[in-house]
Amino acid sequence: MANTIIFLGPSLNHGQAKEILPDAYYLPPVRCGDILRAMRLKPKTIAIIDGYFENTPAVWHKEILFALEKGITVIGSSSMGALRASELQLFGMQSVGVIAEDFRLGVLNDDDEVALLHNPAHSGFNPLTDAMVNIRTTLTEAFAQHIIDNNTKELLLNTAKQLFYSERNLGNVINNVKNKYPDVALDRLITWLEKANFQDRKKQDAILLLESLRDGMPSPLSPLMQTKEGKKITVNRSAFFRSLHKQVMCRPFTQYHDWLPMPEKVALAARYLGPNYRLVRRVAYLLSACYSLAIKQHIAVTHEQKQQLFSDDIFDLCQLDIAAQWSADNDCTVEEKAALSERIAIIYALIAQEKASEDFTTTSDDYLFMLLHLSDDYLKYKQLQTSQVSLLEQFKLHDPQKYRLMHLISLCWWVVERQALRLELQPIESDLQLQSDKFRIKRNLQSQATTEQWLADHDMDLERYQYFMIALSRLNFLVLQNNLDIFGTTYMDENTWWLLDALRLSGLYQQAKEILNQPEKMSLVLLVQPKDETLQDYAFSLDFLDGAQELQQALNGKI
Questions:
Q1: pTM for this structure?
Q2: Calpha distance 189→423 (Å, rounded)
Q3: Which residue, 302, 297, 298, is CA-closest to 418?
Q4: Is the dihedral of CA 512, 516, 519, 525 positive or negative?
Q5: CB of 77 within 8 A of CB of 208?
Q6: Which of 163, 194, 485, 502 is 20 to 30 A from residue 20's alpha carbon, by CA?
Q7: DSSP strand E in 49-184: where?
Q8: Is 58 within 8 Å of 32 (Cβ atoms)?
């Protein structure tokens, strides 16, 4: 069962699940993007039991269809899995259990039937309320055993249904009925429940799924994702789906697990690099964007460009070409190294094409300066520059790692910006104003005087400042918000984990791996709340999906 991934939370304790199916890989409740992320692990089977839905987008149907298209068996039960299995059975998703069958037959129709409030992951996802489907099953059993009559059962069910899921438990339901209808006889029901007769249908269905996997699930009745005529069905790669896929492939896994492959663990450890992690993630987005643009333009790589690529001081892949040590340091197979070199060569050829073009006078250094303005490092290196050593050279000398990251970003940003300028793309006024407002508020530029002083300190006039804001707005819209479709780039690279490429290319993979192996090397920057961000926002920006609480727990010794 080493090829089986199971999304499980409050329906069944992970420890109990492992007693039934010890060799499966267990993940927290599924959320939007998690199926695509799990596919990086190349599983044969994905089982969905529990899922998040209120505070984060729920798992998309199209994610599951994409997995089915790729030949992965997807099974659902109990909770979110039962919902999705009933909805996607015609496309090959399998189901196990009474709840999924009731949804499939229309006996149950409302999503709130399986919803409940529960503790977070570090507390074992323990349920804090009762799912409606469990209350329904329990009261039906009580009626069958003549503990309550039908009228009482319906009264209790109606009362339960009227409660919001986060306030719903059978004790509350009984108390509400007693207070509103004091003549209703409930003493026998209370006594019966005290004897552990509550029916946990969700738990029972979860156990049934695990036992079915252990004992061997039957094959689907029809081939996965095929029409009656035997034609394979493929998932439409819509702009929204491609955007979600890119987000997943530019980010790490959601949580640390001992069984994750080393690159996944290293990517999670990279979050402890603090601001540099945010930069490397931006590199990932921009590499993906430039690769899509290159594919759209059918960029061909010449032998001379490949030779230049291996000697370029930023795309320095001599180490890749040389040797086994780089592969070992970066946990990179021969095949992965060849594929990485090919991708970067294609991006490098696109950059070389832009450098040869003379329709715009800007250079990538102009965008590197913008990044220095954005990071507020400009003043630091302005003070250090001399007639012999320029500002950028001082930057490269004093912080080579950050320089490498920002140079990579500026090169790719410059390429994307030139494509936008050719189409004369302009951000809408409201987005531009929002970009400027956020920039000024973050730097406390609340008055004309403070703004003018900042401009003077940064050697920038109003015209350059306006272009700076426009370029930032275009970067956010086109790359970070995944709107490259405006260039006609409908290509979706389905296999490249761009964050891993960015970590390896920037040299940060080895640093993150050191943190993984020696937690004491964790960056102290994480211990200090940034002045311009709440701890919650800072945690989210570093991909701690549960925010400050998860970050603080991680700092206490958990990657």
A1: 0.91
A2: 71
A3: 297
A4: positive
A5: yes
A6: 194
A7: 73-77, 94-96
A8: yes
Beta bridge pairs of residue 27: 7
Please check whether residue 33 is in contact with residue 54, taking contact to mean a CB–CB distance below 8 angstroms: no
Distance CA 71, CA 74 (A): 9
Burial letters 488-509, b for 16+ CB under 10 A, else e: ebeebbeebbbbbbbbbbbbbb
Q: Give CA–CA dist 38/149, Å, rounded.
A: 48
What count of other Cβ atoms lies within 10 Å of the Cβ of residue 399? 16
Q: What is the pLDDT of residue 437?
A: 93
47: nearest Cα among 221, 213, 226 = 213
Share of the chain above pLDDT 70, in %: 92
Residue with more model confidence, 429 or 531: 429
CA angle 82, 85, 91 (to 5 degrees): 175
User: Cα(210)–Cα(19) distance, rounded to whole angstroms?
Assistant: 10
Average pLDDT on 343-347 reads 90
Q: Could you read off the pLDDT of 178-218 as tens digits, one per residue?
A: 999 999 999 999 999 999 999 999 999 999 999 999 998 76
Tally of CB atoms within 10 A around 167: 10
Nearest by Cα to 199 from 142, 155, 158: 142
* Contacts of 407 by beta carbon, 8 Å cutoff, 6+ apart: 314, 364, 368
The string of DSSP letters for 54-71 reads SSSPPPPHHHHHHHHHTT
- In what helix (H) or strand (E) does residue 5 lie, and over which residues does it extend? strand 4-7
User: Pick from 48, 44, 95: which is nearest to 72 by CA?
Assistant: 44
- 189: region left, alpha or beta (phi > 0 left; psi from -120 to 50 alpha): alpha
- Amino acid residing at 359: D
Helix (H, G, I), strand (E, B) or coil at 7: strand
Give the DSSP per-residue string, 189-255. Answer: HHHHHHTT----HHHHHHHHHHHHHHH-PPPPSS-TTB-TT-PBP-----HHHHHHHHHHHTS--SS
Q: How far apart are CA 30 and CA 47, in angstroms?
A: 10
**In 46-109, which residue ranges form alpha helices assigned H by DSSP?**
61-69, 80-88, 98-105
